[in-house]
Amino acid sequence: MDGTSHASGEAPGAGSGGSGGHVVPDGAAGVMAAEVMVAGNGLAGEDFTGPGPARGFDGDRLFRGLVTASGIAVLALLGGIILVMVAGGMKAFSTFGPAFLVSSVWNPVTQHYGALAPVFGTIVTSTLGLLMAVPLAFGAAFWLTQMAPARLSAVVGMAVQLLAAVPSIIFGMWGFFVIVPLMARYVQPFARHWFGHVPGLGALVQGAPFGTGLLTGGIILTVMVTPFITAVMCDVFTSIPAVLKESAFGLGATRWEVMRNVILPWSSKAVVGSVVLGMGRAMGETMAVTFVIGNANKIGWSLFAPGNTIASLIALEFPESPAGSVKLSSLMALGTILMALSFLALAASRILLGFAERREGRQ
Amino acid sequence: MSGHQNGRQSVRQNGAVQAAPDRWKPHGALAMRRRFMDRLATGLSLTATCVALLALCSILLTLLVRGVAGLSLVTFIHSTASPGMNGGLANAIVGSLIQTAVAILIGAPLGMMCGIYLSDYGRGWMASTTRFVSDMLLSAPSILIGLFIYQLIVVPTGHFSGFAGSVALAILALPIVVRTTEDMLGLVPVALREAGIGLGASKWRVIVFICLRAARTGVMTGILLAVARVAGETAPLLFTSLGNMDWSVSLAQPMASLPVTIYQYAGSAYDDWVQLAWTGALLVTLGVLAINILVRVGFGRKGA
């Protein structure tokens, strides 16, 4: 260590490198030190711009260029995605103008397309999904981090993470063959029986009991995003300094009071960040929702009515959209809207979660 | 001194008046409410955990019950065929393996280099922007990646291809590898780097042959997780490799894959196709979960 710092410190002045031997009196060690020093030129290469003495090509600069290029490639990737999507949707935007955003027509016969219905479906399903997922995820994270015995917590925590690893198409099949019949046979008739005549609520439960629809989509999304939010919340809840928790327990607070008055205020930003992350995930989810959404481009109050989301409309209509058509461009334009929505949510969640990470780093 | 003793005595008296000190349970309204809230929260959060577990169990059970029936030799050696023609999933399985492998071959080296850049070279706004973008790509909707590659590769070349599918999957694998590589390189002890530098190794040799070697378990974890993630992806493949009913291993042709086949078969009206969809779903899920369990259990033990 000492030799290294000597060598790299003296390297620029040492010229040919042989004279460095005087640092260490012993001859053999002197040769070694000289070698270290020569190599030291390579490692201090950021500052040392002259040619490395008697070493020639060392690959350091090439490597540096290579990894920097890969970093730039990632940046370019995002830029490319944005550019390509906007360019692809240009035809639709220029054909329909701003009306594309507020029109709920989707008519392949008259070649008239609008984005409102799928945007509505996307926002409704992901909001419904989050409304159910956030309490579930919070409860699971609360139990896993504060109450469960360590071993049980490890096993159950892993099981919850496995749920996050299940491919989305599997959720789709499961939803289609398990949840949809449940909704059609029990939930929908039940809801209509009890709430169908209540003013206000009645409009929410109208419609034939298909089993597919916005609420079913929301339920599938709940199951899918809960593990993501749980994972982030668990990280946040375990990162709180033990002193804070212990002092609250020492004052006689119950576990719930510690959670409510100590942990949640301490981690509020990160918790919001995890919820927004879940929102970003839910909006972009494709295959699972496609199976259960019902594929109907309309806007209505009923939670049981078939609808559509941006992603599922793209997946369903793409095979019938020839390259270069207005329809394909409309799908790309929808993709652009989805990109804007989800990237906004993801960026917001990164920023919110970044606050928490920075605070941790400082401690 | 005497005051101190008085205090202690009164405490003892209070303690005696109230109850046994180890199970001290006040019965005031406030205390009852606090205890009730705590029990309620405990119960509800336990319920929430159980709901999540129940969903996982329900999915696995459904897959097992419906999928096992189709696990026969025919499924593995026959390609997909018309309904009633005794088709299998061989081309889909092989297609999935090929596309995943090519995706990892493209995505993993690039991701590792980007991770090295972020942990050892990147400074200032460019590094933080790259990190931010990579984290965003981690959760970006996969269908957008599919549309992107469709416009970028499929439209110019004029046809769907397994290669386009692989590139789309590579983009999905990339940020996972970036993240784990950067994290794992950050965990390598400084002393190791210094030892390498002290022996006269240049910076890139230290990074590649010392740090990356030391972090290889972690980096492998990331790559395996990326495999698990992309192996089950459907949405990007719909627009890139499209799917193929026949046996084909050419990357230049449309290529079948398990998830896309599942998607096409699950909604069909033919019983044997639906059965194949369930079997395929079982295979994909078992594969993906096996990788995840392997990674988490194996790595957890080594980390501890």
Which properties best describe this structure?
heterodimer, A: 363 residues, mainly alpha, MetI-like fold, 2 domains, 15 helices, B: 304 residues, flat, disordered N terminus
Tally of individual helices of chain A = 15
Which homologous superfamily in CATH is the superfamily of the largest domain in chain A?
MetI-like
Count of discrete alpha- or pi-helical segments spanning 4 or more residues of chain B: 13
- The helix content of chain A, as a percent range, equals over 70%
* Average pLDDT level of chain B: 88
Low-confidence stretches of chain B: 1-20
Structural class of chain A: mainly alpha
* Major sheet description of chain A: 2 strands, antiparallel
Give the topology string of chain B: H per helix, E per strand.
HHHHHHHHHHHHH
Strand content of chain A: under 5%
In the CATH scheme, the class of the largest domain in chain A would be Mainly Alpha
Count of discrete structural domains of chain A: 2
Order of helices and strands of chain A: HHHHEEHHHHHHHHHHH
Overall radius of gyration of chain B: 28 Å
Number of strands of chain B: 0
Largest interface: A-B, 99 and 96 residues
Helix-strand makeup class of chain B: mainly alpha
CA(first)-CA(last) distance of chain A: 29 Å
Major sheet strand order of chain A = 1-2
Name of the CATH class of the largest domain in chain B: Mainly Alpha
Q: Give the number of DSSP strands of chain A.
A: 2
